[in-house]
Write a structure and sequence with these properties.
Length: 138
């Protein structure tokens, strides 16, 4: 099935998709900051560029988008270019597994949060994140 948008419009739309500093991520970071929790965001020298990292305590937190990380509940394969998207999302899932394995085998404390969890129960997830950080902070 051909794309209903021209190549130029599709390109502009895809360029607008953010890989960092999403609105949901900003709200989480702001909440942590107001609780007095200091962190680094999108740390380039750590595998997978974690959304939140506290290096001295070896804590990393990833906020995974339902689309880009292939959420079993909410992911829907796009109607156009299906083969490309299927391969892309599968590669993302494999990369996520490798990243998780790296942190766990190297003594890091890792937490992955799905986008839909934050949307369904923001306060509950924030309590979970805060408890996780407090448990492993030095």
């Amino acid at each position: 099935m051909p794309d209903k948008f021209s190549r130029a419009i599709r390109r502009k739309t895809m360029q607008a998709v953010r890989s960092r500093d999403t609105e949901l991520e900003k709200i989480v970071l702001k909440s942590l900051y107001h609780q007095g929790i200091r962190y680094r965001k999108n740390v380039r020298d750590l595998p997978g560029k974690p959304d939140i990292a506290i290096k001295k305590s070896k804590i990393v937190i990833f906020i995974d988008s339902c689309f880009w990380h292939g959420c079993e509940i909410h992911f829907r394969l796009p109607e156009t270019n299906r083969e490309y998207w299927q391969l892309k999302i599968e590669r993302n899932k494999v990369r996520d597994l490798k990243t998780t394995a790296y942190y766990l085998t190297n003594g890091w404390h890792l937490q992955r949060i799905w986008e839909h969890e934050l949307k369904q129960d923001f306060q509950g997830v924030m309590r979970k994140i805060t408890a996780f950080i407090n448990e492993y902070s030095n």
